[in-house]
Amino acid sequence: MANEHSHPDIADAMAAQQREISVSEFFLKNRHLLGFDSPSKAALTTVKEAVDNALDACEEAGILPEIRIEVSNQTDDSLRIAVEDNGPGIVEEQLGRIFGKLLYGSKFYKLSQSRGQQGMGIAAVGMYAQLTTGKPLHILSRVETEPTATELFVSINTAKNRPEIHKKKRVAWDCPHGTRVEARIDGNYQQGNHSIGMYLKQTAIANSHVTLHFQGPHGEQWDHQRSSVELPHRPVNVKPHPRGIELGQLIQMLSNTQSRTLLQFLENDFARVGRKTAGKIIEESHHNLTARSYPKRIAHLQSQALYRAIQKVPVSAPSADCLAPIGEQQLEEGLRKEVDANFYTVLTRRPAVYRGNAFQIEVGLAYGQAAGAHLELDERGHIHKTVRQPTHAKPELEPHPDEPAFLLRFANRVPLLYDQEGCAITKAVLQTNWHAYGLDQAKGALPHAPLVILVHMASVWVPYGSEAKEAIAPYPEIVKEIRLALQCCGRKLAIHLHHEARVKDEFDKRTHIEKYLPHVGIALQQILELSDEERERVIKRLDDVLQEKRRL
User: Fold this and answer.
1) Which of 68, 377, 409, 503 is the most buried (most CB within 10 A)?
2) In this predicted model, what pLDDT tens digit does every residue of 34-52 receive, in sequence order?
């Protein structure tokens, strides 16, 4: 009996323990989900989030981005990271919410390509800073129409997910417009493939219109100058595509629409649905639905019928106006500027669709070592051996013959440096038969060749595997498009390798013949009893015949 009476007490005690969890509190305890799971990764994530925001702001305002990144040591285990841009600046009323509130931004509800999606990144940097060093973000921002800049220090109230302003004032700033973000974090500055330097180098490849200035904690200084003054095409915000919605989303859209009839709802609230297509959907749905049905009064069973009809009736693919791919010319310029190689090929695929979302795949290959000896065949058929010297002023990205290919992954122009194994791009590269294009490849591995493989996905909504945005989910439609693009570039590489092998073969034969041609002349002189002058004429004639044959 005692146990029976204790059950209600336990239930009441358990009920009293339940409380709402703030999104800030959740990510405070699960910071690894946002890319802050180690000191070195936290430093990279801080730079990445600030640079991504700066690039989006500049491009949206039609400004060629020029960004300065400063990293300095505060103590043995903490860093001061500052990122300054020449963007349009941020109005004073919005500064606190942008930098001091998670899940706050302007891009979540837009169906157009952008680097940020969730309105979380830069605020998460501030949350990590106050967690590890107790320091708020230091913000300086100026709008062009204002005579002074706004300076403030902001942190996050994690219990309520709202900003806390510690100090705010107007100050003079010689920058006419722009924003500067400074964070003090527990972090580790490192070199290598997962370093800040490598992130900036890859950012310069995918964004040839950007100039980056870097200053490191050990006196390092280098620039990535822009190679193009043309801003990317500004993507257009589009309506949801009917094939990209779930049943629950459809029900919510029906209840929130301003349309007075079902026919108007289908035409006005969806992309690629005209009057004729809308009529077919209504006809296919049945369940007493007509063109004049009032959307807000459609019952749950009728919504299900409408959803099934949307999946059955053919609808045109989404428009590609919402995308801003790098473009073949800019992609090749970026590769040539940052990767030392002797062969480049790039391809931009036509737009495709996954779950109703438009996306576009771009691929670039850089093969061979530009540094060191390189054979070239001129228009007259003569072979030349050239030597190029490498430069080491900043992090190098060079194809190496004794190592696997170097894979560069991008999503909406942003480098993906972590979680390579779980990414759709990696899976597509591993599934490609590189043997068919003349490269060595072990089963389930990258090709073993002096090769840099670049793959970029542009999409209105990139299906990242986690909130840290480190890998693309392997949807079959995405993997297929990447593989097709790789195969096309692979065929061009095979042609180059065949040409290169032929030139090398010609060079070896020529070297061999030229080595023994004087001995042939001496033997002919002895057999035919020729004079020295006649011998030289014979050798010259043989050499002329060799060159003419090579030319033909």
Assistant:
1) 409
2) 778 888 998 999 999 999 9
